[in-house]
Amino acid sequence: MGNLWSEQILGAEQAIDLDAVRRQWFGPLAEGRRVLAWFDTSFVEAPNSPSTFTEAIRWYADILRLAQQQDELLMVIKPSKDEAYYVDEGPRQQWAGPQLGKRLMQVWAALRSHPRVRFLDHADDPTTVVAASDLTVTYCFSSVSAEALGAARGEALVRRRRRRVEVDLGGGRHGAPVGQSVSTNGRYRAGVAAR
Please, is 182 exposed, middle or buried when counting C-beta atoms within 10 Å of its C-beta (0-12, 13-18, 19+)? Predict the structure, then answer.
């Protein structure tokens, strides 16, 4: 059987003009370039959180640096939360951290202004994003990771450890014989799977 959401990705690949989606995102830049889809997680600024706002700032800064260094790549970013989650000080926003949240919003603004980055809304459809991309990169193993793998799409799981970035290609686990692992020092050297 497999992952039912993966079947939706496969259905989208057949039902949607994926080149038109890519042109909608990037205009004429879409021609002949690879598209990397980036999905984050719910970052929480709390003691013992494995994914803090500081990690979010680093994650997005790394994406920006990659976009600036690799002219042949296009980036589509699908955050899991909107700006209010990170910066609102009201009673509804128990996870917000206004100081670090504002720093994160500065990085988001830089990404939004980059010509080869399409920054989507947190409510946009992840199925179309995965289907129209050459490689799906997730901050941690998430439902999108399973969906991309189940649809036989390129998927890379990125985990940060101190100043080193580790990238698992093919959904393998670090240190395990399944999958291929590439460790870098602050740069992504993951290959981009062909559509």
Answer: middle
